[in-house]
């Protein structure tokens, strides 16, 4: 258990051991009590203030205290609390629906059949976004899946208006990097382009930056659609908009295994893929490579194809061979 009043210096990421990561997986005590069925968050706060809650046989009466339900013994009025069996649901959030409970309708948790009062969403998508959402009653896993420290990738497919240029991609990356003060995301990939629209892939390791939409609009490519297709190892698959399903036992175990790997720092190697100030500078000094499929430009080649063909011709000239006929 840790207390809000504690102010321990943070260790460098490479120097932390498993206990350091585990401490960050702790939850506020009132959240644990609420999920265990002791009432609303406010009522659980009252239980703490009244001195009726103990953690590892020590009375806790200060709000902000944290505990780990998997490691600590938590009791109310002397009776140890029991958490419900973990449950996990994937939802294909439709555009226009909400990830919060403080709205009268169009709440995505209502898409799950049956009565599940203890479920909550893992992270959020704003009203205009759609795609994969995870709902669970497992706060520990939810915290690890959403905390930037654990480098869990979230993959989005983004449709923007217009035929986006390669240099505009670099400009958007640069603007997003500085707008988020070094936000954790990978270089944007162009998946397909037509004269009227372009399909992009964005991988982030935190929440989707709110500034991303405005930045794309500023560079002349307003976003028409954002769909999250993957969180960690979970994929949207063939789930239709507005549908939800419970993870099978095997899928739930695979998710828990993934969470344990993230908790132990196994995903920190993802950090080398992130956009940095150095990579932005390097990108401005070379021609970027993109996974791009061109449509609507029959008979034309991408700039990358022309560059590679020119390089091959130069090599043939230097070796005394005639350039290839076009």
Task: Describe this entry's structure for a reader.
There is one protein chain. Helix 2 crosses helix 3 and helix 5 (166-179) packs antiparallel against helix 6. With 326 residues, the protein is α+β, with helices and mostly antiparallel strands. The protein has helices at residues 18-24, 29-35, 41-49, 139-146, 166-179, 211-218, 249-263, 277-283, 303-318, and strands at 27-28, 53-55, 58-60, 66-67, 74-76, 79-80, 88-93, 120-121, 130-136, 154-161, 189-193, 197-204, 223-231, 234-235, 244-246, 293-294. The strands form three sheets. Strands 7, 8, 9, 10, 11, 12, 13, 14, 15 and 16 form a ten-stranded mixed β-sheet that branches. Strands 3-2-5-6 form a four-stranded antiparallel β-sheet. A two-stranded antiparallel sheet has the order 1-4. The protein has two domains: 13-80, Roll (Structural Genomics Hypothetical 15.5 Kd Protein In mrcA-pckA Intergenic Region, Chain A); 88-273, Pseudouridine synthase (2-Layer Sandwich). Helix content is 28%, strand content 21%. Strand 11 (189-193) and strand 12 form a beta hairpin. The N and C termini lie far apart (71 Å). The radius of gyration is 24 Å and the shape is elongated. The model is unreliable at 2-22 and 299-303 (pLDDT under 50). The protein contains nine helices and 16 strands.
């Amino acid at each position: 258990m840790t207390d809000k009043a504690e102010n321990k210096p943070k260790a460098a990421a490479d120097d932390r051991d498993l206990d350091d990561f585990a401490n960050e997986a702790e939850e506020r005590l009132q959240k644990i009590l609420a999920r265990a069925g002791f009432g609303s968050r406010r009522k659980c706060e009252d239980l703490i203030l009244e001195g009726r809650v103990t953690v590892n046989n020590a009375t806790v009466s200060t709000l902000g205290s944290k505990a780990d339900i998997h490691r600590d013994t938590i009791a109310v009025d002397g009776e140890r609390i029991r958490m419900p069996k973990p449950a996990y649901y994937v939802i294909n959030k439709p555009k226009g629906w909400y990830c919060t409970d403080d709205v009268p309708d169009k709440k995505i948790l209502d898409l799950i059949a049956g009565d599940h009062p203890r479920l909550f969403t893992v992270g959020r998508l704003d009203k205009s976004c759609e795609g994969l959402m995870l709902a669970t009653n497992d706060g520990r896993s939810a915290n690890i899946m959403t905390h930037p420290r654990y480098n869990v990738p979230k993959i989005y497919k983004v449709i923007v208006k217009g035929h986006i240029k390669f240099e505009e991609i670099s400009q958007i990356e640069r603007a997003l990097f500085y707008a988020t003060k070094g936000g954790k995301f990978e270089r944007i990939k162009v998946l397909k382009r037509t004269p009227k629209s372009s399909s992009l892939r964005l991988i982030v390791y935190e929440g989707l930056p709110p500034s991303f939409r405005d930045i794309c609009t500023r560079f002349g490519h307003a976003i028409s659609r954002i769909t999250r297709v993957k969180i960690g190892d979970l994929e949207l698959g063939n789930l239709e908009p507005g549908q939800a399903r419970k993870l099978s036992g095997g899928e739930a175990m695979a998710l828990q295994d993934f969470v344990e790997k993230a908790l132990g720092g196994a995903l920190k190697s993802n950090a080398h893929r992130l956009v940095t100030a150095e990579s932005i500078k390097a990108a401005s000094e070379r021609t970027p490579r993109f996974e791009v499929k061109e449509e609507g430009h029959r008979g034309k080649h991408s700039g990358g194809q022309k560059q590679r063909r020119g390089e091959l011709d130069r090599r043939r000239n230097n070796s005394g061979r005639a350039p290839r006929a076009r």
